[in-house]
């Protein structure tokens, strides 16, 4: 029985104090200006308009020293230049596309269980365990697994893993090009994150090759960073866009299931098989002013919290071999508590702004994660609806799940200009990374998103336990 | 490559509906359907190189997912009702088992081997089949196998649980698949009700309050959840082809009275019945045969055993000793006025709410006439199949003979060839071959 998450409102209050002090120290000089400005304003008001006018005419008649005029203009211009140059560049999310798997990849509960029964024929207890998990998982009957995993037994070869990667990534990127009108030669920065499949050449090289990107494209491939890698990629893109003016960055977030399907019988390691599903997303970020008007969102904040310094947190999602030498991901029983701690660290940085969010996208890691976060952040059912429904329709698609959730909110027609969205991701490490976006323009329900053919059926009621 | 079977590299997966069947959708079965549950239809469709062009696994699977959207009621799994234990189907989209295999022979070579009568050649190589049970939860009622041949041709094999429907529904299933393959068809509106079983009106009970027991039905010992016919003998299958010319000759030989010419099916039935009677001499001589053929009904539901007529004829004379022409004529008369026992079977099974287990094929020596089944209606790349054969699995001890039309062999005078498949106790097969050679039905080797 995992420990109940602690009430951290008191520590939050303390953190507010710390936050206030930090703000004071960081913006000292700006804060100094305030009393100066006040004094100036008071003086102007005291002098009165007539006096001011007299002062003006007097200065006109007196031939002001050229040096004084030049130096004051120079001062004003240089202050303005320094101000505008040191202002961080605004990062816009122009648009994004989520991968929709073909129906032939569909895995109803019954099929999953039947295949499991045939593969694990000597381990009925493990089959029972999977059935219990599936019943309570919050997944629906339309989630998808890649073709190689549909075989009895699964056939995970390197070739089929690359096949899945090509299918997912190329479909998402093609869709992104279509939606944004982006040309491959206009991509300046490319970041691909996929935690568990890292071939040589890398997946980002695969994208460069497929779309014939420029030879000076800045490509990055993030692997091994877990389900929160999507936010890490966004953070990296943002930093790069500070350094490179007038640039486009494409971020591809996915998780390739084929090579990572656990083939053994240890229960803790069978759990990811029940939850992880096929999915991917491609996002276009830009700091070009020309994109300002049509961009969907503006990036406000990225907050990254790493609890890896604590041994328990470090080991709570751990890839290892079981007793028979089969590799799988071991999820520890402390996962929920550790997730709570990581979230605590993360949100106290975002802190006082929590109340101001209209929309939440909580990584659809599992039903328990969403339940706990809903309780701790005291969110309403509508706030977590995007997360729950994404888990139901697409399963846990790892780093791309946040984008399916955002797409849900848009498909429901709930995204209005000025709305603030908080995307929260958890992942191995243990990390909690989040991003805050502000909606740039009211978004009409898209007709070509992955929810297009089923949004009218949602939200669905997800029973506590599904009868199989 | 040396292997026991010429078919290898078998990969197993599943195909099912692309659309989710939402809610508690179930399919109920009538008495007749339940009576058929120990039987399975097995068919193989052989497609030539041109027809098999472009049939990648992806293309085949995509079309099957579309097909299963319509046939979601064949993609579920059986359950038993609480209380009576009566089987029904939970339409949970589990799907049909799908197999991919390769064969190092050409289509011709395989077919020749099959008809050579050697025991190691059997339809089982091209149609993977497991009976339903012992875990109903995890037993698919439909198996589909795609085998690619060296010549570029392919075969599609299907094992279809008879509880789902008769040969006419099974062939419709395959023919509809062809439509999806060609992109001619799209799914209808999304309805989630289970198809209602056609309610046939029950026969009025006879004056003494008890309807007569159907002759075509035999009750067997309870099989529980493992739907396998318990045989006292090991059953073996053998098939032979009759060209149109041969078929015409057989009929001619048995026609004594030109005005009462027996049909080809009746001629074949008479010939084989007499041969089997001679083999099973004495007490075991089959005095009664069951005839299963197409009914005159114009309805064509997607599932259910409604398009076959089941009836039995009994003799009081010795079949082994009778003249085969006379037998054919007698048979022709009797088949003409045959009583369809479907309703009686229905009622007999319903009496204990489907708790008992029965066999129909092989309850008596059974002859199945598949004339009228649109076996060659499957179209792929605008071409029909080169060859189609069907047999029945789970036949009772008395045996069964399935007569399948072979329209590719015709003599231009309205005669069509036939493929005859006999499912009999092992020890009778060689004897039958000898008898059939003697009477000129089977060619000498």
Description:
- The complex is a heterodimer of chains A (468) and B (445).
- By secondary structure, chain A is α/β, with parallel strands linked by helices.
- Helix content of chain A is 44%, strand content 16%.
- Chain A is built from 14 helices and eleven strands.
- Chain A has helices at residues 9-26, 28-61, 66-86, 109-119, 124-136, 158-180, 203-211, 229-243, 267-275, 311-315, 335-350, 367-376, 385-394, 401-411, and strands spanning 92-98, 189-193, 218-222, 248-255, 279-286, 297-306, 317-321, 327-331, 359-362, 420-427, 431-439.
- Chain A has a nine-stranded mixed sheet with strand order 3-2-4-5-1-6-11-10-9, sandwiched between helices. A two-stranded antiparallel sheet of chain A has the order 7-8.
- In chain A, a hairpin with a 5-residue loop joins strand 7 (317-321) and strand 8.
- Chain A starts with 8 loop residues before the first helix and ends in a 29-residue tail after the last strand.
- Mean pLDDT of chain A is 90; it is low at 1-6.
- In chain B, helix 2 (57-70) crosses helix 4 (167-181) and helix 6 packs across helix 9 (426-438).
- With 445 residues, chain B is of the alpha+beta class.
- Chain B has helices at residues 31-35, 57-70, 107-115, 167-181, 244-253, 264-279, 324-336, 342-350, 426-438; strands at residues 7-15, 26-27, 40-47, 77-80, 87-90, 96-103, 142-149, 154-161, 218-220, 235-242, 288-294, 308-314, 357-359, 365-369, 387-393, 400-410, 416-425.
- The radius of gyration of chain B is 22 Å and the shape is globular.
- Mean pLDDT of chain B is 88; it is low at 194-208.
- In chain B, a hairpin with a 6-residue loop joins strand 4 (77-80) and strand 5 (87-90).
- The two termini of chain B are 28 Å apart.
- The A-B interface holds A 102-104, 106, 108-111, 113-115, 117-118, 140-142, 150-152, 155, 468 and B 11-16, 18-20, 22, 58, 61-62, 65, 76-77, 92-95, 135, 137-138, 140.
